[in-house]
Amino acid sequence: MNVEFLLSATFDNRRVIPNQDRLFKAIVSSLNEVNINPLVMISEFSIIEDGTTLIYSFHPSADPIYFEFKTDTLFITITTGSFGAGYHRFIVGVLDRIARRLDIEFREDAVHKDPSGYFRSRNFEALKKFFVNSLADYAKMLITHHDNGFSNFMISMPYNYPVIEKEYFALSSLGYWGKNWFTDFIDASEEDRLTLAADFFIWDIEEMNAKFWFKSFISMIWLYFPFREAIDNKEKTMYKKIMYAFQESYKKDASLKYPWDILIDIAHYLDDENLAKFIESKKTAHHQQDTLQIGFRLEKARYSIAAGFTIILPMRMNVFRNDKSLIEFKDINVYIAMQVYSFANEEIDVIMEYVLKQIDIAGEDKGEKLDVKSQSGKIESIVYEKELEDNDHIITVACAAKKLALLAWFTYSDAEYRDMCIEAIKSIDVEN
Question: pLDDT digits over 366-400, tens only?
Fold first, then answer.
């Protein structure tokens, strides 16, 4: 469900035309002010490597906004998708404040205009109806595709989000959605659709009320929480954003059904024992049991490695791509590194011989050869395992396919994680 439009603003001769660096700094500085961006505590930004585009994420569960400066014109790409009418209105309002700060005027692209009409009309009731009607059209499309044999629909999920290895009808940043929900939405009256849409959209009204903050941190848990300690600063920052949104929600409405145990764990992972005690006391006071089953990162997913190779791994692992051919997966007790090679030769035996020589170059003992192989009929594989110091183990995997090879190293710290590594090795496949 995609709602996207383009804006631009030109710095004319009446103003000092900024250079790109100065302009981006001015935009970020403005967006870091609470009076311009009330979501600043959960926002973040980055600038792509060549420095031409500023990417600003107002909310971890929403698509970011792209700012690009060319010659004397600032271009902005806005996507509001399944986030809702409230978010759409918020983004337009923020850009209004940016325009006043920079003394410029944003204009819609002649082709890619705001499909809701809100940028021109500023009619919020019409905007809400647009999102509800768009959801109805989208629901009809999903039902049609499902009747034609398709399923596992991912609705406005973050770019490159892993493909979960289980059967479902649809999912969004607020969890799984069954087919019946969409058929009920299609059949509902206009009034009932408004009620149902309020469950689907994270932000469907003008104010940032308790439900907005509640669905905000719930969506962050669904998308990003790995149900373990943070293993890098990026994860720790996400834990802080979850707790910030929870606290904003709780201040506005303490009666909502909060996932107390998850929140207590996050507080402990942040080493905030006072916050953990506070949450524990509120759980006891409200006599609520955890009934919310949430979190995509409890699942497994098939990940793309490189050059067509894929593997199934638990989603609690973090992914790091150093270049186009090297990829790392990290968890507290498991570390995986993978290197992909390409060849002009299609003879798998010749390719495997080359890969094994690469292993032998290091001159280290490969360990014991295991009776474990990739279950793919398109891959030949050889697997070795040896014990390291402190009860660590390393499994070395060599895979060969037509014109391709994969070297992988699985390091685990406890015997209970060995089965996970073995199952992952068996799942290695290569796309046609």
Answer: 899 999 999 999 999 999 999 998 889 999 999 99
Confidence label for 290 from pLDDT (cuts 50, 70 and 90): low
CA of 107: how far to CAs of 60, 112, 391, in Å?
Answer: 27, 11, 63
Q: At what angle do helices 124-147 and 190-200 cross, to 10 degrees?
A: 80
Both tokens of 267, joined, read 């507080």
Confidence band (pLDDT; 50, 70, 90) for 299?
very high
- Residue carrying the six token digits 């050869």: 369
Contacts of 309 (CB under 8 A, 6+ apart): 338, 340, 399, 401, 404, 406, 428, 429, 430
Q: Are strands 380-387 and 170-172 parallel, antiparallel or unpaired?
A: unpaired
Q: What is the strand order of the sheet 334-342 is part of?
A: 318-321, 326-330, 334-342, 404-412, 393-401, 380-387, 368-369
Euclidean distance between CA atoms 259 and 384, whole angstroms = 43
Structure confidence at residue 358 as a pLDDT band (50, 70, 90): confident
Q: How far apart are CA 379 and CA 126, in angstroms?
A: 55
* pLDDT above 90 (res 48): no
To which H or E segment does residue 237 belong?
helix 233-252
- Per residue in 116-153, pLDDT (tens digit) is 999 999 999 999 999 999 999 999 999 999 999 999 99
Rounded Cα gap, residues 29 and 32, in angstroms: 5
| b/e code 46-65 from CB counts within 10 Å (16+ = b) | ebeeeeebbebbbbbbbbbb
- In this structure, how many other beta carbons lie within 10 angstroms of the beta carbon of residue 144? 10
| 337 touches 326 (CB < 8 A) | yes
Q: What is the pLDDT of residue 422?
A: 97
Residue 331 near residue 314, CB atoms below 8 Å: yes
Q: Cα–Cα distance between 68 and 144 in angstroms, integer?
A: 38
Q: What are the start-end ranges of the E strands in 143-273?
A: 153-154, 163-164, 170-172, 175-177
What value, to the nearest 5°, has the Cα angle with vertex 245 and ends 240 and 248? 125
Span 56-77, mean pLDDT? 94
Length of the chain: 432
Q: What is the DSSP string of 195-214?
A: HHHHHH-S--SSS--HHHHH
So what's the pLDDT on residue 365?
82
Assigned token pair, 280: 């524990």
Going by C-beta distance under 8 Å and a sequence separation of 6 or more, which residues neighbour residue 153? 142, 145, 146, 169, 170, 171
